[in-house]
Amino acid sequence: MKLDADIALALRLADAAGDVIRPYFRAPMSSERKDDATPVTIADREAEEAMRRILKAEVPRDAVHGEEFGATTGKSGRTWVLDPIDGTAGFLAGRPIFGTLIALVVEGWPVLGVIDQPILKERWIGVSGKPTTLNGREVRTRACRSLADATIATTGPHYFDDHEGGHFMGLAAKTDHRRMVMGGDCYNYAQLATGQIDIVCEANLKLHDWAALVPVVEGAGGMMCDWNGDPLHAASSGHVLALGDPARLEDVIEALACQH
């Protein structure tokens, strides 16, 4: 089955990236600022290069879209989307809550996603039509009876502009905001898929930031969409919601529409 081969390939990519990243973790390292002011390190670049070498050798007809080295075109309608270190700031701070993100996108829709935490050796695998697993064990999101009971997470307020931040705070005010989680990047979505967080809300994400997350969250019983409730695809705006309990969607969309 082709998808089984794709899963095996994605796992080899994660192994290769992890082998590059681990020796750099908590080691003296400089970083640079990219055009969007986010940090990048030699570990980011070498990990993506390692994954690209494997893809070029094994699936040369597939396109590749990577955070560090951009997009290459393909002839198959399939695109491998790579983020070697999602959460570089956390990586530089020695916090093991960054992740390597690997997605297979077919005609603009994510069908396979891996979130790999190479230090803790935690690996979430999401595949369309299959249950999400963490290190081979099926995981599920948790039920959420009301927004007032919900734990909400976001990477940080600085990723919102003033307008977006007002809408986020309108949502956060309806949740149990005393338990709000700041920081964590892709790890928040992995924890949501494992039943430990209820909502993740972010803005200005790029395809490499979210493509791998969709199959992981949805395969665990959750849902991902934009701030209007529409499914995420390659042309989405970057306003991203993840819900552990899809029954709360209308409540979340209504709360987001209000500015705090």
Notes on the structure:
With 260 residues, this protein is of the alpha+beta class. The chain folds into two domains: 2-138, 2-Layer Sandwich (Fructose-1,6-Bisphosphatase, Chain A, domain 1), CATH 3.30.540.10; 147-256, D-Maltodextrin-Binding Protein, domain 2, CATH 3.40.190.80. 31% of the residues lie in helices and 24% in strands. It has eight helices and 15 strands. An eight-stranded mixed β-sheet has the order 4-3-5-6-7-8-9-10, with helices on both faces. β11, α4 and β12 form a beta-alpha-beta unit. The longest helix has 20 residues, at 2-21. The protein is globular, with a radius of gyration of 17 Å.
User: Biggest β-sheet, characterized?
Assistant: 8 strands, mixed
Q: Give the SSE string.
A: HEEHEEEHEEEEEEHEHEHHEEH
The 3D shape can be described as globular
DSSP helix fraction: 25-40%
Q: Assess the beta-strand content as a share of residues.
A: 15-25%
Structural class based on helices, strands and sheet pairing: alpha+beta
CATH topology of the largest domain: Fructose-1,6-Bisphosphatase, Chain A, domain 1
How many structural domains in the coordinates? 2
